[in-house]
Write a structure and sequence with these properties.
heterodimer; A: alpha+beta; 5-stranded mixed β-sheet; B: two-stranded antiparallel sheet; two-stranded antiparallel sheet
Chain lengths: 292, 553
């Protein structure tokens, strides 16, 4: 019967009918049976993993061991008794996974301009460099260490000059990420006095010069950069070590005990070479809560 | 062990595993595509579909069947997205907008898997399983079928036919992709990849906030996403998402999976033409190019040569701590060397030269080792062009594997090669000269141009990764990239099948003293040279304006 239908069709349409039928059969097998079989086997053999590695505390679900979360209060400030996660482009919302996607030379801020026509320009935008500098300063203050970094000003923005004219000897230099009345991070550049940035002025024609300075960073890289997923459940061992004294102080625990817990929640590289050593922040914080 | 040393061992271990995969999987695929028996399940499929599995097809019939299957696939994937609110497992999500649904349908059917939508909020589970994952299987099987058809063209003598499309499609799916994907999916679940049919599960976090933990049939899709060199993630963050790629070792496994079939196919080619050493030569070209690229990407990313990575202390923006810089750089190089396009880190935030490597890999035509099937047929075209160039130098008719490369053959090979650059450069120019095109850039200056150039390269080369700052969800971008993906996939395929038909008809010419040996190191070097020179001539001006300008400023 199938063959008859095939032969009644005009010749150019025959492959399409076969295509519809092949796709229908393959959809049932590959789109139905295959995922359902994997789901069934996974549920029997690996129910915890297949269900999302859900973590429970005090009889309720508090998250997933694989999905990072923020340990901040309602005001957005870090809760001092908890280890803090990395910055996240999506605020640790699993319905908005993703990265900042800002480029490695994104160093000039767009200052907020209340008179601008479109909303994006009114709000302004901090460059990736300024975000890194601001995070470093904030982490430094929270942990009681220096938040200074190369290419950052002491007030926590990108240390970037716009030099005019773009080619040749400078006649005018602006610290473009420090809006007036801020004091520029250097007084002079190649003999020219450095000005603060004026709102609404367009500096795009100038040459961009990022100034390295001689700062040495104490705050580790993962503490000042957003992850690829926005849901990174881990921090580096260095960032955990940096936070240990503050957490111990807030909890009245011996810092050696906190460091021991960090070690207990550190996962090394699989087989010694796959990936990097990590500390799971949620599991570490739960272990701290169980201490008392 | 430092990060660089661990990263080196990571690359070496992948090479070691693939050295075992090459003969095992390659020989297995040779038996799959040459066997005369049909399994019981396959016979049921052929009967339900009403196709005769033992009827051989000339190239034009083979091509028509392939195009018909792809056209029907686009319609079904489009329809399921538009109707998802009325079907089961839609999770209450609204229909996907028309232009996004069309873009996505073309994207998955062409093995590109460019994603103009965020998976966790746009797609219900039914679309993910019955539309997107199905295409992950069959689009890869289509690519493998075309590669095998081309190789039959070289292997057959005075033949009118190049195989049966339906048989190649079904065997590639059932005997190669499905069994490996099933095992890989379960291994991934053991690593923490989720696999259920639940919707978002609300929890209250330690500090009293709320979080929706997403579920879904992720592992079953993740396995075929890598194995079939597709790359379309269940979630917006793709393989950076901890539910898709939870640890350093799942990252390693994904790298191996996405290289397995493209690396093994040259062995299948060698067996089919009866000279295993010809397969070794093709593999050698792939390995040389791939190792240089992986090494360069790692060096650029570890050096962190740009202002923000220097300020941060490492190029960690857009990267996950568990993969680190080398695990991210190696994945990025491999996903663009194959036609996968899965990403475990944000390529947009890579150092300028590291980001350029990912673009350059796609511009090479994704032949080292390339996509499932498309890598082999792309590399064989480059071998044809190489023997032609060599033939011009000594003034005799070129031949490859005993087949003459005459006017018709070299025209088809040249047309094949020109499709991608034409689409990339015309598309980028159109976007830059158009307000709707310009509006999609997130970053300004040369980096913004990189985002646009990357998008068109990724679409035309059927890769699917992105400098993801670009917002490709507007109607202009969805249509422009959709057309690029469709032409970038099916024009080359038609040229390949025509080439296969024309080669199959020839009687082989006996090798003589003047025949260029195509299994020696000299030939390997020539093919690698032709590949790099052709790409440099085509794309260097565009690259100079975008990532090179940024990296040297």
């Amino acid at each position: 019967m199938a063959g008859n239908l095939m032969e009644r069709l005009p010749k150019p349409l025959r492959p399409h009918l076969a295509a519809v039928r092949v796709l229908a059969v393959l959809t049932v097998i590959l789109g139905g049976l295959y995922p359902l079989l994997v789901t069934g086997v996974a549920r029997v053999l690996l129910p915890h993993r297949a269900g999302g590695s859900i973590v429970r505390a005090d009889g309720r679900d508090v998250g997933s061991a694989l999905i990072g979360q923020s340990f901040t209060g309602r005001d957005g400030a870090p809760v001092r008794k908890y280890f803090q996660s990395r910055p996240s482009a999506g605020g640790y919302d699993p319905l908005a996974s993703g990265a900042s996607n800002l480029g490695p030379q994104d160093v000039v801020d767009l200052p907020p301009d209340p008179r601008a026509a479109d909303q994006a320009a009114r709000k302004g935008r901090a460059s990736l460099l300024t975000q890194v500098c601001a995070r470093s300063k904030a982490v430094g203050e929270l942990e009681g260490v220096s938040g200074a970094r190369p290419y950052c000003t002491p007030d926590g923005v990108g240390a970037v000059l716009k030099v005019f004219p773009a080619v040749g000897a400078p006649t005018r230099v602006v610290s473009v990420n420090q809006p007036c009345p801020a004091a520029p991070f250097v007084a002079a550049y190649q003999g020219v006095r450095v000005e603060c940035g004026r709102r609404g002025e367009d500096y795009s024609a100038g040459r961009t010069v990022a100034v390295r300075g001689d700062a040495h960073a104490v705050v580790p890289p993962d503490a000042v950069t957003a992850s690829g997923s926005g849901l990174d459940p881990h921090i580096s061992v260095a960032y955990a070590e940096l936070q240990a004294p503050r957490v111990a102080g807030a909890r009245g625990l011996d810092v050696r005990r906190v460091r021991a817990l960090v070690r207990a929640h550190t996962t090394g590289r699989a087989l010694g070479f796959m990936g990097e050593p990590v500390v799971n922040v949620l599991e570490l914080n739960l272990a701290l809560d169980r201490e008392r | 062990m430092g990060a660089a040393a661990a990263g080196t061992v990571l690359v070496l271990s992948v090479v070691a595993v693939l050295a075992v995969v090459y003969p095992l999987l390659g020989d297995y695929m040779y038996r799959v595509y040459t066997g005369t028996r049909h399994s019981a399940a396959e016979r049921v499929v052929y009967r339900l579909a009403g196709v005769r599995p033992d009827a051989e097809q000339p190239w034009a019939v083979y091509a028509r069947a392939l195009l018909a299957f792809s056209a029907v696939s686009v319609l079904v994937v489009y329809g399921l997205q538009r109707l998802q609110d009325r079907l089961v497992l839609g999770l209450g999500r609204p229909p996907v907008p028309a232009h996004v649904a069309w873009n996505t349908a073309v994207s998955f059917v062409t093995n590109t898997n460019w994603q103009a939508y965020p998976g966790e909020v746009a797609m219900g589970h039914l679309v993910q399983m019955a539309a997107l994952a199905v295409q992950n299987f069959v689009s890869a099987a289509v690519g493998m079928a075309v590669a095998v058809a081309l190789v039959r063209g070289f292997a057959r003598r005075q033949a009118d036919t190049i195989g049966n499309f339906w048989v190649d499609l079904v065997r590639g799916t059932f005997r190669v992709l499905l069994p490996i994907a099933f095992v890989a999916a379960l291994v991934l679940v053991a690593g923490g990849v989720v696999q259920n049919l639940a919707g978002p599960h609300g929890v209250t976090t330690l500090t009293g906030g709320t979080q929706a933990i997403t579920g879904g049939p992720v592992a079953s899709q993740e396995a075929i996403k890598e194995l079939g060199t597709n790359g379309g993630g269940f979630y917006n963050a793709n393989s950076a998402h901890p539910f898709e790629n939870p640890s350093g070792w799942t990252n390693w496994l994904q790298i191996v999976l996405l290289l397995a079939i493209p690396v093994a196919l040259p062995r299948t080619f060698g067996r089919l033409v009866g000279q295993v050493r010809q397969g070794h030569a093709i593999l050698a070209v792939m390995v040389v190019i791939a190792l240089v690229s992986v090494l360069a990407t790692n060096v650029f990313e570890l050096s962190g040569a740009a202002t923000v990575p220097q300020a941060a202390g490492a190029a960690m923006e857009g990267k996950e701590v568990r993969f680190g810089v080398p695990g991210s750089a190696t994945f990025a190089a491999v996903t663009t060397l194959t036609s996968t396009g899965a990403t475990d880190s944000a390529h947009d935030s890579f150092t300028p030269l590291g980001g350029m490597m990912t673009m350059l890999n796609m511009m090479l035509g994704e032949v080292a080792p390339g996509g499932a099937g498309s890598g082999l047929y792309g590399m064989l075209v480059l071998a044809v062009i190489t023997v032609f160039v060599a033939g011009l130098m000594v003034g005799r008719t070129p031949e490859y594997l005993g087949k003459r490369i005459g006017a018709r053959e070299i025209k088809l090979a040249s047309l094949y090669f020109l499709v991608t650059p034409a689409l990339v450069l015309a598309g980028t120019a159109a976007a830059m000269g158009n307000r709707a095109g310009l509006a999609a850039m997130l970053n300004g200056g040369p980096h913004g141009l990189s985002e646009v150039l990357y998008a068109f390269t990724s679409a035309a080369a059927n890769n699917g990764s992105a400098f993801a700052g670009i917002s490709g969800g507007s109607p202009w971008w969805c249509v422009a990239l959709g057309l690029c993906m469709a032409f970038g996939r099916f024009l080359p395929i038609v040229f390949i099948l025509a080439l296969a038909g024309s080669l199959a008809r020839q009687a082989p010419v006996p090798a003589s003293a003047g025949t260029l040996p195509t299994h020696r190191a000299q030939f390997v070097g020539m093919v690698a040279g032709v590949t790099v020179i052709l790409v440099a001539l085509t794309f260097l001006p565009a690259l100079a304006l975008a990532p090179l300008a940024e990296g040297l400023s």
